[in-house]
Every structure is written in structure tokens, then in C-alpha cells.
Amino acid sequence: MSSANQPQRVQPPQPPPPPQPPKRQSNERNDQPAAKRGKMERECSVCKRLKSLQDNFSKSQRNKGANAKCKECIDVQQKGRPQQEENRKLAAEKREAKRKLQEENRKLAAEKREAKRKQQELIRKKAEEERKKEEEERNRAAKIREAEEKKKVIAVNEEKEAQHYKQMKEL
User: Fold this and answer.
1) How far is CA 164 from CA 99, 150, 156, 161, in A?
2) Which residues contact 54 (CB under 8 A, 6 or more apart)?
3) Whether pTM exceeds 0.70
4) Which ranges of 64-80 would DSSP assign to H, the alpha helix?
5) Packed helices 81-170 and 71-79: angle between N→C axes, nearest 10 degrees
């Protein structure tokens, strides 16, 4: 059995390779292998469920990582916005009422301080008047004592003078 006697088998031509899909632009995330792209599922930060990244998260939420919110949670949150607006208005009204109350309390406190200051001023003036009266009393008493001392000195001098005249008459 020689190889020369056997006819050689001819292989049929191979079909052409399938056409390559068009190349994606280099800035798309999916042109990296799946291992490098990261998870294809992510946990919603609100409802804590694991959901498909492509279908359940908007593009802006996909970039937020662990803080991403799924589309359902965002819809629920947006439906609650009219209530939030009402709550904001109520909160603003409460803040305004609180601010007015604080302003009123400040005015009352200022009035009390002013009244206390005026009362202290009156007390100080009364004390000053009493001190002046006492000083005047002391001055009057001092003048009276001085006048009495003068009278005594004059009386003593007159007595001495009278004795002196007596002595002079006797001589």
C-alpha cells in the first residue's frame, strides 16, 4: 500500500469568514472585556435590590456607583415631590413664624433691658440726691458748729476782755 497508488483527497475550499461587526467608537464603555467593565448588576441604594445595570439604572445613576438609585425608586421619589413641596412650604412657614417669635422676644428683651436701665438710672439719681442732701446737712451742721465755736470764742474773748478791763480799773 503505497501512497503513490492512492489518490489524494482534495479538501473542499473553506467558506469565507463571517463579516466582522462594525467597530464601536473607542469612548464607549462596552469596548472593554466584561471583567474590566465591572458588574452588570448593581444594588439600588434606596430599595437595596440587585438589578440589571443596563435596564434598571439611568446613565447618570450608573456612574454613581454605590449611591445609584434605580429608575423605579426615582419615579416614586418624583411622584412624592408635590408632597415635598407642600412640606417645604409648611417648613418655610414654621421658620418664618419662629423668626417672628424670636424677633418679638428680642424686642421684649430689649424693652426689659431699657426699663431696667431706666430703673437703675432712677435709683442712681435718688442715691445721688440723698448723698447731696446728706452733704448739705453735714455742711449746715458744720457751719452751725463753726458759728457756735465762734460765739464761744467771742464769749471767752469778751470775758477775758471784761476781766482785763476790771484789772485795769483796779489799778
Assistant:
1) 95, 20, 12, 5
2) 40
3) no
4) 71-79
5) 60
pLDDT tens, N- to C-terminus, the chain (171 residues): 455 566 677 777 777 777 776 665 544 444 444 444 456 888 888 888 888 888 888 888 888 888 888 888 888 887 766 667 788 888 999 999 999 999 999 999 999 999 999 999 999 999 999 999 999 999 999 999 999 999 999 999 988 888 888 888 876
CA distances 121 to 108, 114, 118, 134, Å, are 20, 10, 5, 20
88: which 3 cell numbers?
Answer: 417645604
**Mapping DSSP to helix (H, G, I), strand (E, B) and coil, where does residue 52 land?**
strand
Q: How far apart are CA 167 and CA 161, in angstroms?
A: 10
Give the type of residue at 135.
E
Look at residues 56, 34, 32 and name the one whose alpha carbon lies nearest to residue 43.
56
Q: For residues 29 and 35, what is the distance between their CA atoms, to the nearest angstrom?
A: 12
Those residues with Cβ within 8 angstroms of residue 39's Cβ, 6 or more apart along the chain or in another chain: 53
Residue with the three cell numbers 471784761: 162
Cell of 144: 452751725
The answer to whether 71 and 51 are in contact (CB under 8 A) is no
